[in-house]
Design goal:
This protein has 8 helices and no strands. By secondary structure, it is mostly helical. α5 runs antiparallel to α6, α6 packs antiparallel against α7 and α7 runs antiparallel to α8. The chain is flat, with a radius of gyration of 16 Å.
Length: 142
Amino acid sequence: MFHSGAIELLKIAEKLYDKDSEKAVEVYNKAIKKAERIHDDYAKAVTLSNIARSLYSRGLTNKAIEVYKAIKIAEDSSRGDIILSRVVENLCSNRLIDKALEVANKISNDSSKAIALSEIAKAQYNAGLHDEALGLMIRQFL
């Protein structure tokens, strides 16, 4: 099974959050545990990234960062750069730009890294960090 029930638990936690946030956090934790047992690195990273995005959108920033940090990419994984790029996208959408930069620097493929850094520059620009965004784009081409 692709996500071993983690996505279903995520959906339950999202619906429950407005009614009972404490219970929802318990369900989020169960979703995280299920996601951590997924054997496929890519599926695990995508599922954990989706959980972290949901946590962040509900104001649970520290928990979201904890989940992002738990995402491990196998060094020999041919899909590692794809996974890292997806994590960068989620971090940018949650305005966790510093963490996105940290993850982007782990991308080994130059093309994938350039795309990820462009995504970060866009997030910086949208956050009003115009000089930082411009600096990041200039550094890409030097």
